[in-house]
Amino acid sequence: MLFGLLLFSYLDLPTFLVASVIIDIEPLIVLSLNLSYPLHGYLHTFLGGTIVAFLLALVMSTIRGTLTPLMSFFKLEQTTSFKAILLASLFGIYLHVLLDSPLYPDIKPFYPLESNPLQGHSMFIGFEIYAFCVVCFIAGGIVYAARLLRKS
Predict the structure, then answer these.
(1) What is the pLDDT of residue 52?
(2) What 8-state DSSP symbol labels residue 140?
(3) According to the 3-state scheme, what is the secondary structure of 36-86?
(4) How confident is the model over 60-64, as a mean pLDDT?
(5) How far apart are CA 148 and CA 3, in angstroms?
């Protein structure tokens, strides 16, 4: 939320929010169906994520108008373009891959390369990344509250 609000003029916020979580449909399906497949497979790579980002951008550009009332309700009216939607889609997915890569040994972010140079070696890496996410969430709430106060 923080990055979406800070880059509000450049990124489509609903697309960014969806993009930042959509690739986690992969581990959800793997766990739900008990598949013999890596928990974080091809969607958690930059290559697979790029494909998802383009598909998401196409879908969001088609349905984006239906989200206008919701955006108005939250006082986050935004004019958008396909470029802003595509940038939001790519940035949200790439940020997700970057944040997950140090955490999980099954992620191969630069597939087809089989290594993960982003794999964290600190025993605190999980805490650090989750703390970063919590701080960003709180800061996002503060930025949103400031936007609301400025508008009133």
Answers:
(1) 98
(2) H
(3) CCCCCCHHHCHHHHHHHHHHHHHHHHHHHHHHHHHHHHCCCCCCCCHHHHH
(4) 96
(5) 17
Tokens of 16: 């960014």
Specify whether the CB–CB gap between 53 and 44 falls below 8 A.
no
Residues of the chain with pLDDT > 90: what percent?
Answer: 92
Q: What is the CA radius of gyration of the chain?
A: 17
CA 46 from centroid of its chain's CA atoms: 13
- Collapse the DSSP code of 8 into the 3-class scheme (helix H, G, I; strand E, B; otherwise coil) and give the result: coil
Is this prediction's pTM over 0.85?
Answer: yes
pLDDT tens-place string over residues 23-40: 999 999 999 999 999 999
Contact (Cβ atoms closer than 8 angstroms) between residue 17 and residue 4:
yes
CA nearest to 24, candidates 111, 127, 93: 93
Question: For residue 32, what are the contacts with CB-CB under 8 A and spacing of at least 6?
Answer: none
Per-residue DSSP letter, 31:
H
Question: Token pair 């550009």 is at which residue?
Answer: 61
pLDDT of residue 123: 77
Cβ atoms of 26 and 67 within 8 Å: the answer is no
* Mean pLDDT of all residues belonging to the chain: 95
